[in-house]
Structure to design on (120 residues):
């Protein structure tokens, strides 16, 4: 059996840089398989943080594109954004219990009326 490659932290950090948080891109830069790259990404606190930073950078980029679209008048994007980011203001796709804030509707009483009038 062949010997597994060992990557120093510095090389892994360089591979993570500008990977957009895509493990396959890190693997390609390291010339290894996906699972090896994922293992090394999660091996050190610094590589975990670098990977998280890459992921957050992409999220910021995508969120900026949504905001540009909203500024141009795209109401579908505006509604989608409100459904995701505006739930605390009452916007959203459903009226389910807000598990984050652990709140329920004030009126959660169940009323059952039984018509027991059997004499007709």
């Amino acid at each position: 059996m062949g010997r597994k490659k060992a990557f120093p932290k510095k090389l892994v950090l360089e591979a993570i840089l500008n990977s957009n948080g895509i493990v396959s891109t890190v693997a390609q830069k390291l010339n290894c398989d996906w699972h090896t790259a994922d293992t090394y990404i999660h091996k050190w606190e610094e590589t975990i943080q670098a990977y998280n930073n890459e992921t957050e950078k992409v999220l910021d980029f995508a969120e900026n594109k949504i905001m540009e679209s909203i500024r141009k008048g795209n109401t579908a994007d505006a509604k989608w954004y409100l459904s995701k980011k505006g739930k605390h203001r009452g916007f959203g796709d459903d009226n389910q219990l807000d598990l984050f804030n652990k709140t329920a509707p004030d009126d959660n009483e169940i009323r059952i009326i039984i018509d027991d009038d059997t004499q007709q």
Remarks:
- The helical segments are 9-16, 23-30, 34-41, 45-71, 75-85.
- The mean pLDDT is 86.
- The two ends are 89 Å apart (CA to CA).
- The CA atoms of residues 18 and 54 lie 7 Å apart.
